[in-house]
Amino acid sequence: MGRYALRRLLQAIPVFIGTTFLIWFLVWGLPGDPFAGRCGEKQCPAAYVNYMTEKFGLDDPLPVQYLNYLKNLATGNFGQTFNGIEIGELLAQAFPISIKLALVAVAAEALIGITAGVLTGLRRGSFLDNLVLVSTLVLIALPIFVIGIVARYAFGLASVSPEAPWHELIIPGLILGSGSLAYITRLTRVNIVENRRADYVRTAVAKGLSPGRVTGVHLLRNSMIPVVTWLGLDLGALMGGAIVTEGIFNIRGIGGLLFGAISRRESGIVVSIVAILVLVYLIVNLLVDLLYGVLDPRIRYE
Amino acid sequence: MSSPEVATATAEAAVAPVTPAPAEPPRKDKPRSLWTDAWYELRRKPLFVISAIMITIFVLMAAFPWLFTSVSPTEADLNRSLTPPDFGAWFQFGKGGQFGYDLQGADVYARTIYGARASIVVGLSAVIGNMLLGGFFGILSGYLGGWTDALLARFGDIFLGLPFVLGALVILSTFAPVQSSPSAFRITSLVIVTFITLGWPSFARIMRAAVLSTKQLDFVHAAQALGARPGRIILRHVLPNAVAPMVVVGTITLGAYIGAEATLSFLGVGLREPVVSWGIMIGEARQLMEAAPYMMAFPAAFLAIAVLSFVMLGDAVRDALDPKLR
Fold first, then answer.
1. Domains in chain B with CATH codes
2. Could you give the ipTM of this predicted complex?
3. Given CB 3.0 to 4.6 Å as the disulfide criterion, which of A47, A209, B158, B299 pairs with B278?
4. pTM for the whole thing?
């Protein structure tokens, strides 16, 4: 287990370097004037351009710039925006809100999705089963931005306040998780249906366990493996994928910060956020893989 | 999967010339391949039939929009700005305004019809590109294994490490900044290339897994033993038997890509004027939800139905090709 985790960690390093380099190169490395349009209609004065070039090290060769960036990242120094605001501070304000939102979404997905999946999987072909299947199809088909706009309009919701208390995040979280909610319902259902025919379930029934225990302990635990994978990957993806939801509900999280930074071409913010999100994604991936062994003792890591 | 069928087919072919059996009547049921089997299964599924009909309509809409409307999607008259839908016009051919008019006074119905083209073109090209590129690299790493496999896997992980919307946002805004207005062809191909860049590793992974299991089957070993060249083995023996999972994922992904295209256009980084797209229309309608909810309702409904059709088609195809859950 320890060796496996170590090997996976080592494998993650080139991926992290590759992905951050890709984004860094797209944002900083491509030829083009980083100061175009930064001084209104006029050309930026030479003194300003020189000062900024010096400050951001734009004259260094590209590999040196990238290495400097990695070094700063490792020491927790995210640098400054073009206006001289500490990027670290911006991130510290935005991240807790996005994490809260992602947690609400994942909790809703797990709670509703798994319950619906188990209920329909146990009664395959029933009216409830068909109803849930149709509703999951509708949820998958409707893009989040449509659901979000309609929900805001239909329920007359106001924007979420800047501090983003939990209770105001419930509806945005539900909307953010709606697509995955549908997937989780279907995934749980398929796995329950498949595992119900397994030998260990028959054995559990045959030795006289109560139906609740058969479902809750034997069936559910073995059916959860793909679901846990999905939930874990989703938590990683939702932190960055909340751009649309955060935009519609005016939540001041990472998504809004990122989108603003992209349209104002604040390269430093974009690169920092993506680096953090990739790191989160990789760690979550690793944790999910390690969790397999806990859920299913048959899976062993050499 | 289909190894027994293929094995008997080759066995018969090999035996036939040696012992011509004139007395035996020709067998009526030819050994059915996985695909014929799937087709038999599919034709009886209402879900498949419905989604296939819907998709045919959308493809027709994309290819020949003038079959559905005679009004130009870009012709705008400010006198008609925000006129609500005229439900009487639904049954009168050649009259505009069925779905109302938008802020600029352009016909919402015509725009919705013409919007199908962007979605279908982007979704279809991106999925085909993904299948070609991902399939090629998947076969390469699955069949060759070793260093090629390890290198390709790590290289693909770089793109998989990026969340989809995030990666697309950065790539698109780099090559087509938010304020710029690129030509229709340029922005469309840029969106397609972005989707392929971010999507090929998942297709490669699926293909690789399928190739790995197909490679172990007897008929591949037989072909190798007979001295067939790798190119022939891959094209004639491995590929036809390993492509099914990718086709299933491709169909479902097509629906997802149509949704993603609309999302990016809605955010203002994807397609933009002069392209007509459902995502752009929904984005424009957002500020006018109170005054003109119909501006949002019609493109959103078309978008949802299009995505739903492809997801349903993918579901049906998967059930037909994967008999495990039957």
1. 33-77+94-325 (1.10.3720.10)
2. 0.81
3. B299
4. 0.83
